[in-house]
Amino acid sequence: MNEIYYWSPGVQFYVKEEELYVERFRYGRQAAQFFPEFYYMAQNGAGTDDLEKRFETDNKSLLKNLIQDFIKKKILVCSVITPKELFHSQTRLFENDYPETIRFVKEELEEFKKEQSGRELVKDGLTYILKDSYYCNDIIYRETVRKFSKKPITYHSFSRILGALQNREDRKGTRYYPSAGGLYPVDVYVLVKPGRVEGVEQGLYYYNPVINGITLVDKGENITDKSQFITNQEIFSGSAFTIYFLYNARCSMPKYSGMGYYYGILDCGIMTGLITRISEEEGIGTCSIGDMLYGKIESCFHLNKSQLFLHSMECGYKDEAESEQPKEK
Ligand SMILES: Cc1cc2nc3c(=O)[nH]c(=O)nc-3n(C[C@H](O)[C@H](O)[C@H](O)COP(=O)(O)O)c2cc1C
């Protein structure tokens, strides 16, 4: 099948001193001869054959290689792009008046965090101080858990946590969380670590909300801490199971077009909240992981091209020595 490729909406190119640059990659003078026409053509979508035929050149292999490299680097894409690729373009639009150092100098980051969590945008004017801030212990004592005990998770707790995402019997067509249009476009996979969930073998499973069950898709032996950034490797290694959330464009884009993607991300946040809440009830701690090296393990999931990785969560019994949560609730 001749795929139609598009210039990725998150990617910029420029020609400087007759050389072509695409994002941080330098392609040189010869490649520059095809621009900007190549870009205009790819913006509207074109097959690789059409792109190759469009340009008169003695060096056909250069053009062919260029196209293949653009595909490899996801400069040319033939399916919905990942959130990372999509949101990358926003960085340059944001007027950042903070120094780069807040990313890696601990004290500067702490100061930045204090400033953000303590912001009070509007202070003058009619103000009411709200009262009655009492909540159940699961909300009061919830905290992100990064160190887990090695105790295997009971099948009961594991079932209650993932079961929160099932299709309901009592209210057909709905689940225990809201979703735009009732389409539930977020697919869920769970990686069970060896011996860490009672009665469940190690492996990567697809969570099936229709039967409220899990089905093995990969033995998971190649899913290691190398799929995480260094700061999150220990969290991954210690957890009993990892939940992966993937947006499935086929489920909501037919109705909502591009906004379906945005709603899917919102759904994922709501699901994460629900999982966190039920986990607390079961004495299980969770850690959301914002970013990871998902590309390293993608092939284990056997996805179709409309499924995109959004988010993951590490789960396990809290290491009581580390937790501030009281033992008796
Ligand atoms: C979207 C998202 C991404 C996060 N990513 C990470 C992460 O990569 N590593 C980590 O240790 N914690 C991560 N966290 C946890 C936050 O650091 C934590 O929620 C925050 O510091 C507030 O602390 P608390 O959850 O204990 O109240 C993430 C949380 C969210 C919601």
TrEMBL record:
Query: InterPro entries given for it?
Result: Bacteriocin_Proc_Enz, Nitroreductase, Nitroreductase-like, SagB-type_dehydrogenase
Q: Which Gene3D superfamilies match?
A: NADH Oxidase
Cite the Nitroreductase domain residue spans from the record. 140-309
Under Pfam families, the record lists:
Nitroreductase
Molecular function (Gene Ontology), one example: oxidoreductase activity
Report the NCBIfam families cross-referenced here: antibiot_sagB
This protein is called what? SagB-type dehydrogenase family enzyme
